[in-house]
Amino acid sequence: MQTKPEPLQVGDQIMDVDDLSVHFQLGGGVLGRLFGWGTKTVKAVDGVDFTLHKGEVIGLVGESGSGKTTLGRALLGMAPATDGVITYQDVARGTRRVSHMGKAELRHLRTDVQMVFQDPHAALNPTMTIETAVGHPLVIHEGAKGEELRKKVADTLERVGLSPAEQFMSKYPSDLSGGQKQRAVIARSIIMEPQVLVADEPVSMLDMSVRAKILQLMIDLKDDLGLTYVYITHDLASAKFFCDRIAIMYLGRIVEMGTTEEIFANPRHPYTKALLKAIPEPDPELAVPRDLPRGEIPDAAQPPLGCSFHPRCPVAVATCGWESRDLKVALEEHWVRKGDATAYAKERKLLGKLDALDSPSQRVTLGKGNAGEALALLEGIRSENPDEPMWKGVDSMSATPDGVEIVFHEAEDPTLRPAGGAEVACVLYPRES
Fold first, then answer.
1. Which residues does the chain have with pLDDT short of 70?
2. Which CATH superfamily is domain 13-112+194-265 in?
3. Among 207, 257, 215, which residue's Cα sits nearest to residue 238?
């Protein structure tokens, strides 16, 4: 006789993500994508590691384009893994690799791992009644029908606060408010009694008046049903209210991870500090300087060398990964500050074509045939703004027969390492020996 597996207890590992990468190919036609001609690779998720334990809420926090939604979709097999392993601890079937599942296995997985999508207006089929939409998973996976199905739907609607259920079952999504639609979406996600819910910005499209109510509902469901959450958000304020642990994501990587208390009390990564400063303060007398990062999130198809945050980082050091594209930005900022078209034309001619600066490199040459004058110009630009972090990354500038050779310090690409009560990927926190 086969021994019945023991149910997972609170704190047991339920999901493990090991060196996960999800890459997408952009550009080119069919043959181009097949042979790699003229294509770019977007590293939406790039080497992510974390473990999810039963009963906890882990928050994936970052700006748009950080890879958090792609990571969430990968947990359900909706975004195929390019590399790495996602392991799910199935109570009935034992340890299973989500990243290696076929369609039939993924279908079974989604009875245990469900997703709550960001837009409740788009998540519900407008032609289905609420009864049909919420009960659809039971029809698909278990073939439920009749009075048994109807009772299960009614009980689930009552559980999420759509009460009395009879008043909502015959309605269509267009008859509901935004908060009521999201409650219906949550009802559909829990009707199969899943173990894990991946909630992708579940309150971002709702009115402020109902956001706290939906989050409280999710907390109540966690306590009542023993749910485990992966909560995806750009809002650290809601993550503080809802999450046990927080993982800060930037350009496809986790740059800091720790308990919610640790992240808020002692943020370490400069990006985490910037996100915390961006949280609105309702009391004007307690308002703090924002000091938000300069610039925008870089192109994920050609991320910066070294630490991806370094071009925007106010405390970047020499080894953060400075390169040719950073030099081009510094030159363009110099010409904008100067605002002299004649001087701009003269200096551009002296430095020659800047096309070489568009490709990431830590060794470039400018000013062919004018090495002496070009070197003096670059030194003058550096002296204008010596606090510009990019200049810390320049190891040497020297005149050569081919022009001015600019060499940057060797880049360090930091990975997560322990730092006090958290983990951080930053060169300011050396890896412990």
1. 1-6, 27-38, 280-292, 432-433
2. P-loop containing nucleotide triphosphate hydrolases (3.40.50.300)
3. 215
What tens digit of pLDDT does each residue of 228-276 get? 999 999 999 899 999 999 999 999 999 999 999 999 999 999 999 999 9
DSSP 53: E
Token representation of residue 313: 């980082």
Q: Residue 372 contacts by C-beta under 8 Å, 6 or more apart in sequence? A: 399
**What string of DSSP letters covers 118-159?**
S-HHHHS-TTS-HHHHHHHHHHHHH---HHHHHHHHHHHHHH
Where exactly are the structural domains of the chain? 13-112+194-265, 322-408
Cross-strand partners of 43: 23
Q: Give whole-number Cα distances, 384 to 120, 150, 259, in Å.
A: 52, 73, 43
3-class DSSP assignment, residue 403: strand
Burial class of 108 by CB neighbour count within 10 A (0 to 12, 13 to 18, 19+): middle
23: phi then psi, degrees, rounded to nearest 5: -115, 150
Per-residue pLDDT tens for 91-105? Answer: 777 788 998 888 889
Q: What is the pTM (predicted TM-score) of this model? A: 0.90
Ranges assigned E (strand) in 54-210: 57-61, 83-90, 94-97, 113-116, 196-200
371-384 and 341-351 are packed helices; what angle lies between their axes, rounded to 10 degrees?
130
Nearest-angstrom CA–CA distance, 164 and 158:
7
The CA distance from 82 to 60, in Å, is 20
Identify the burial level of 143 via C-beta atoms within 10 angstroms of its C-beta, where 0-12 means exposed, 13-18 middle and 19 or more buried: exposed
Q: What is the pLDDT of residue 191?
A: 95
- At 216, is the secondary structure helix, strand, or coil? helix
C-alpha to C-alpha distance for 337 and 392, rounded to whole angstroms: 20
Beta bridge partners of 164: none
**Under a CB-based contact definition with an 8 Å cutoff, are residues 369 and 376 in contact?**
no
SS3 at position 65: coil
**CA separation for the pair 346, 376 (Å, rounded):** 14
Q: Rounded distance, CA 270 to CA 311, Å?
A: 12
How many CA atoms are closer than 13 Å to the CA of 232, on its beta-carbon side? 23
How far is Cα 218 from Cα 215, in angstroms, rounded to an integer? 5
